[in-house]
Amino acid sequence: MPEKGKGLNLKVYLLDTEFEKSVKSWLGEASSQAGEGLWAEVIKC
Amino acid sequence: MPFLLAGHERSLETCFAEASDAARRIFEDCAYYWVLSDTRAAVPAVTAIAKAQDRTMALSWNEQYYNHVLSALQFLKKYEDLAGLSISSHRTRNDIERIAKTYQGAFSPVLILGDPGSGKEVVARQLWKTYCAWQKDRRKEREEAQKQAQKRTERGRPKRLGIRG
Question: Which of B22, B52, B146, B149 fits a 20 to 30 Å CA distance from A13?
Answer without folding.
Answer: B52
